[in-house]
Amino acid sequence: MKNIEQLIKESLENHELPYNEAAWESMSKRLDGTSPSPFYRKWWVAASIGTVLVGSALFFTMNSQSESAGNTQKDIPALTQNIKNSQTTKQNRKAAFQHTVAPQTNTLHTKEKQTDIHQESNMVVAQNYSRPAVVHPSSNPKDEPVKKETEGLQSLILATKPTPTDVNSSKPNILPVTFNKPKYCVGDEVEITNPNENLVVQVIQNEKNLLTIKPSSKKTFTASSEGMIEVQSGNQKQTAIVYGTTTDLYIHVDPTLIYENAIPAVRFSVSGNDNPVHWSVEKHASEVENGTFVVHPYKGTDIEVTVSSKDQNGCTVTEKKIISIPEEYKLNASKALDINSTDPRVATFMPFVLTKRNTPFELYIYDARSGRVIFKTTDPSNGWNGVDSNTGELLKNGSTVLWKVILGNPNPGEPREYNGTLVLKTE
Predict the structure, then answer these.
(1) Strand, coil or helix: 42
(2) What's the mean pLDDT in 7-24?
(3) Rounded distance, CA 240 to CA 219, Å?
(4) Cα dihedral angle (194, 196, 202, 205), rounded to 10 degrees?
(5) HSE of 420 in the Cβ direction (CA atoms, 13 Å)?
């Protein structure tokens, strides 16, 4: 499309009014020859030119909306100056024409000529535009049409310029989902939160649908297998990785119960991972000595230990082992008393550990049928010989008694009391 300035310039330069000499002579004979008022002639000429200019500007402005608003705004100052220059040129040409053809005319000549000019201008507008333009008269005929045209172009540019709201108002504001951790290991708890109020998200792992999270809610589940977790929310995708363990742990133990300073002990060791390990055991006292896990089974015969460590991905590696020892630790007390034996440990009753451990204690012997205390001592060298201390009589052969030891200073994790049964042999 041609430049708007060039089109307006060509329209103004090629527009001329035809001269009819006979009409001018006829009207001169009828009128008194009074010179027309220069003010009215200039006003009508300016109004006609303004009508043509405004109509032309509106037409080309409406057909140039496809061009960028920035280029149009840059043309406004030049357009305004060209309009003023064209108006001045047109007025000069009109004055020369009137001075040459009709130096003196009367008021009737002026009105008829103005009517012809106005009609011809309207014809030009009707041929070039889809709708007529309107120019309002003002006190300044030279400047007001140009000012109105410039303001109209600026208003049209601003009205058609898109705004960020118009462009983006249809796009929803989608918020990303959140994970409680950036990565997971098999067995970890995964928590995914969907903050969107009107969006349902799908959780996928290894190309399989795991679950669906409703708007403004969260889901928690246990990672049961390794692989990528993907969550799609609109055009956004969040991922998290589930790792499996890369190493194994192996527990080594000698199930033979040993006594260290009369204390029961079972030692465990581990291999398969150079990272630090953590040990644990149920129901028993324990300690770590020089990388070895030592368990003291004061009660029971089953020992269950667990060892754990971290692999290269930070995942926890765990191993368990259960062993059984031959007998329960009860201060190494004998189960029978034979008063005729030559072995002092069997001929009298005193738990063996009490003779080795430097700890205060109280030993009680009870009659199994009545529950009476028939013997009591705190001296590890004074064992019971089968005599009821209340009557001074030896119990019958095959009698069963109960015993109990209360420790004054038990070891960490050790029970304060031990008890058991004892069968008496006197024959």
Answers:
(1) helix
(2) 62
(3) 15
(4) -40
(5) 17
Give dist(CA 161, CA 262) in Å, integer: 95
How remote is the C-alpha of 289 from its chain's centroid? 46
Round to whole Å and give the CA distance between 216 and 135: 60
Three-state DSSP class for 295?
A: strand
- List the structure tokens of 358: 């430097």
Contact 243, 186 (CB under 8 A): yes
Q: What are the beta bridge partners of residue 241?
A: 183, 228
Using CA atoms, how far apart are residues 94 and 113, in angstroms rounded to an integer?
A: 12
Picking from 169, 230, 177, the residue whose alpha carbon sits closest to that of residue 200 is 177
Q: Which residues contact 310 (CB under 8 A, 6 or more apart)?
A: 275, 276, 316, 317
pLDDT at 210: 87
Q: Dihedral through CA 30, CA 35, CA 38, CA 42, nearest 10?
A: 20
In angstroms, the CA 60 to CA 129 distance is: 9
pTM of the model: 0.53
Alpha-carbon span 73 to 63, nearest angstrom: 15
For tokens 């280029």, the residue is 71
pLDDT higher than threshold 50 for residue 75: no
| Phi, psi of 56, deg, nearest 5 | -65, -40
**Radius of gyration of the chain from Cα atoms?**
58
Contact 281, 306 (CB under 8 A): yes
Q: How confident is the model at residue 256 (pLDDT cuts 50, 70, 90)?
A: confident
Q: Which of 69, 64, 89, 86 lies closest to 4, judged by CA?
A: 64
Report which DSSP code applies to 368: T
